[in-house]
Every structure is written in structure tokens, then in C-alpha cells.
Amino acid sequence: MYKRQLTIFAQAVSSGLLMTSPYGETLHSAGARVMYGASMLYVLAAVLAWKPGGGSPRPVLHASGFLVLASAQVAVGIAHLPSVHLPLGVLMFGLSLLALARR
Predict the structure, then answer these.
(1) Please, are residues 49 and 59 in contact by the beta-carbon 8 Å criterion?
(2) How many CA atoms are closer than 13 Å to the CA of 77, on its beta-carbon side?
(3) pLDDT at residue 1 above 60?
(4) Contact 5/96 with Cβ under 8 angstroms?
(5) pLDDT tens per residue, range 76-86
(6) What is the pTM of this model?
(7) For residue 1, what is the enclosing H or E element?
(8) How far apart are CA 31 and CA 12, in angstroms?
(9) Which residues are within 8 A (CB) of 86 and not within 5 positions of it... i.e. 6 or more apart?
(10) Are 85 and 73 in contact (CB under 8 A)?
(11) Within its chain, how far is the Cα of 54 from the centroid?
């Protein structure tokens, strides 16, 4: 769970570097791949904890929603739509902090 928050934070930092330095795009692009992979693993872990373990289905819904947001973030990032990409990133960061605070 904490890895997702760290990847989101790293994306926020690399976003600033993207706007201010020549190597920021490389870092932000690599971080996007890591964050998206972490989101997929989060869904897998939530499903494995829910289905065979008999846990609550709520984490599956949260993880799936986050994966949908991450997918949208990737799509608008590739389309170079910063007016959507940046606010969506802030939303994801805020939701990630909210999830962390609930722990």
C-alpha cells in the first residue's frame, strides 16, 4: 500500500522536474510505468485478499477505481493535455493520502 503513495509522490516530484529540466521527461515517463504497474499489482493484491481470503470487497473497488484513474492519467499524459493531466494527478495524490490516513 505504501509503495503506491511513494510512486505517486515521485510522480509529483518528477512532474516539477519535467517542467524545469531536460531530464525530467525521462524520469516522469519511467515513474508513470512504475506507478501504473503498482496500480495493477494493487488490484491483484486486493482481489487475492478478497476472494480466497474472504476479506471485504471494498479494497477491490478502491483499487479498481484507482486503476481507472491511472489509465485516464496515462491517456491524457500521452495526449499531452496538461490541463487535465495535472489536476487528475493532484486528485490521485489526494486520494492516495486519504487512503494512507485511513490506515
Answers:
(1) yes
(2) 21
(3) no
(4) yes
(5) 999 999 899 99
(6) 0.84
(7) none
(8) 10
(9) 15
(10) yes
(11) 26
